[in-house]
Amino acid sequence: MKPHIAIIGAGLAGLTLARELSGIADIALFEKARGLGGRMSTRRNASHQWDHGAQFFTARSHTFNSFLTPFISEGTVVEWQPNITTLSLDKTPFKRPWFEPHYVAAPAMNSLLKAMAGDLNIHLSTRVEHLVANDKGWQLLDDQQQLLGEFDWVISSAPLPQTQALLPAAILGDTLARYQMLPCYALLLAVDDTDLPHWDAAKVNDSQLSWISFNHRLPGRNRAAGTVVAHSTAAWAQAHLEDDQETVKQQLIARFCALTGVSTAAITSAQLHRWRYALSAEVAEPDQAFVLNESARLAACGDWCLGGRVEAAFSSAYQLACAVREEIAANA
Ligand SMILES: Cc1cc2nc3c(=O)[nH]c(=O)nc-3n(C[C@H](O)[C@H](O)[C@H](O)COP(=O)(O)OP(=O)(O)OC[C@H]3O[C@@H](n4cnc5c(N)ncnc54)[C@H](O)[C@@H]3O)c2cc1C
To answer: Which numeric CATH code is attached to 4-330?
Structure first.
C-alpha cells in the first residue's frame, strides 16, 4: 500500500514535493491561504494585479533549468529583459545590465504554481495547527481542532518560524536554529502609466526601499493598467514591523515619489502588504538542503534551507523528495 504523506504549504517547495512524490505516495497538500503561490502569489482587484512577493527568478542549476524547460516551451515562464536602472536619493540613475537570464511566470507570478498543481489533492484555506503522534503515524488537526487526516509522513514547507511552531522540537532537535528569516513590506500602487519614467524596474540603494518595478510592464501583463510594486529593505521592515500600517504606507509612498520623481497625483490607489517571513538570511554553510528525521517520518524544506530565493525553494524540495523516495523504497 502507498504511504500517506501530508505536505504543508502550497508554495513552490510544497508543490515541487507533491509532484515529485505523487507517483509513490498518496499526497494531501494543505495550504492556509485561499490560493496557491505562497511568496510567489499575485494580488488582484477588478482592474489591476500585483506580484507582491518574488518579482523574478534566476535558474543556475541543471535540475532547475530542466524543470523550467516545459513551462518555458508552453509560455508559462518567460525570460524577462527589462530596462533596469539603479536609483538612490543622491546619485544620478544609471542603467544596470543583467548578466544572466532572469525569468517571470506569465501572465502572473502564480501562473507557474497553478500550472504545477494539475490534479494534485490540494486543500486550500486549511491551516494545519497541530500534529499528534499515534501508533500509526501522525494525525493533523486544523485551527478548529478538526481532524484533517492520518498520515505516515508529514512534511512542512512553511516558512521557518511557522515550521518551528508546527513540528515537535524534541524530534527535529536544534537543526532549525541555524536558519533565520527576515521581513519585508511590499507597497502596491495603481498608477497612470503616462506619468512614469521610461525604465521598467530599479535596484534601489536606499535605507527604506530596495526594489521598485512597474509591474504591468512585466511580460504578459496588461500594460494599460499601471502598477507599481516597491519592496522595503529588510532592515527598515524589521525596525517598523509593528508600526501603524497606514503610517508605514504613507512613508513608503513618500520615498517612492522622492526616488522616482512620480507625483502623488499619479497614484490612484495604494495598498501595503507586510511579509513577516519574506527573505532568508544567508546560511553560513548551506550544506543541508532540508531537515529530515527518518524514524519519526517528519521533514521540513523550503527556501530558508538554502539561503532564500525561488530556485532555493525548488532545490530544497527536490532534494528532500529524492531522500524521502529512497527511504520509502528502502522500507517497502
Ligand atoms: C517581498 C519578496 C520579494 C522576493 N523577491 C524575490 C526575487 O526577486 N527572486 C527570488 O528568487 N526570490 C524572491 N523572493 C523569495 C521567494 O519568493 C521565495 O524564496 C519562494 O517563493 C519560497 O517558496 P517556498 O515554497 O519555500 O515558501 P512559501 O512560498 O512561503 O510557501 C509556504 C506556504 O506555506 C503556507 N503555510 C504556512 N504555514 C501553514 C500552515 N500552518 N498550514 C498550511 N499552510 C501553511 C503559506 O501560506 C505558504 O503558502 C521574494 C520574497 C518576498 C516575500
So the answer is: 3.50.50.60
